[in-house]
Design goal:
The chain is an alpha+beta fold. Helix content is about 50%, strand content about 20%. The chain is built from 4 helices and 8 strands. Strands 5-6-3-2-1-4-7-8 form an 8-stranded mixed sheet. The longest helix is centred in the N-terminal third of the chain and has 62 residues. It starts with a helix and ends in a 9-residue tail after the last strand. The relative contact order is 0.10. About 10% of the residues have low confidence.
């Protein structure tokens, strides 16, 4: 008789345990969903406020002498050329894919630049010239390059400046003949 009772009770206990586990899981999932939804809505509210604050800052900057100078440069032939050069490579930048480049200068210097300041590599990609800035220590890894060398470049970002004749792209990866010459280490700043 005891064996029959144990045989009936054991599956019942297992079923109750499974039901309890499932109910707990469902409750937690619902609670997590509510927390996630609350977080998303609060982030949306913050991002709207942030957008408004950023828009206010941008309008204030655009009214400043630097902002006015930048807006004038943007509509100038030089500014339009730089913006058009970005359009040619923006897909490669967003996807972080290889771009074939030819070195056109290793000695570019800005006017009034300090000799210990940043070093510039100028390359031509699809008929357009681009600039890459390096600190002197990183630029040493590119000492083997010469004008007209063919290289592979990958970039994660680009920037405009009325003070530079070309679009400035980040030189995050540079290779020549399947040998990596430079690869930016993002672990130092947590990928920022």
């Amino acid at each position: 008789m005891k064996k029959i009772i144990y045989t009936l009770i054991l599956p019942l206990v297992m079923v109750i345990g499974l039901v309890f586990s499932f109910a707990t899981f469902a409750y937690r999932s619902g609670a997590n969903r509510e927390i996630k939804n609350e977080t998303k809505s609060s982030q949306k509210q913050l991002s709207v406020a942030d957008r408004k604050a950023n828009l206010d800052k941008r309008k204030k900057w655009e009214a400043s002498p630097d902002g006015i100078k930048y807006k004038e440069w943007e509509v100038s032939p030089e500014g339009k050329k730089v913006h058009a050069s970005y359009d040619k490579i923006k897909k490669s930048i967003k996807a972080f894919t290889n771009m074939e480049a030819v070195v056109t200068s290793l000695t570019f210097k800005r006017a009034n630049a300090k000799s210990s300041g940043p070093k510039w590599l100028i390359v031509k990609i699809n008929g357009e010239e681009y600039m890459m800035q390096f600190i002197p220590k990183d630029f040493q890894q590119l000492n083997s390059l010469k004008v007209n060398d063919k290289i592979i470049v990958r970039s994660r970002s680009a920037g405009y400046s009325p003070n530079h004749p070309y679009l400035i792209i980040s030189g995050d990866y540079i290779a020549q003949n399947n040998k990596i010459l430079f690869k930016r280490d993002f672990s130092k700043n947590n990928g920022c």
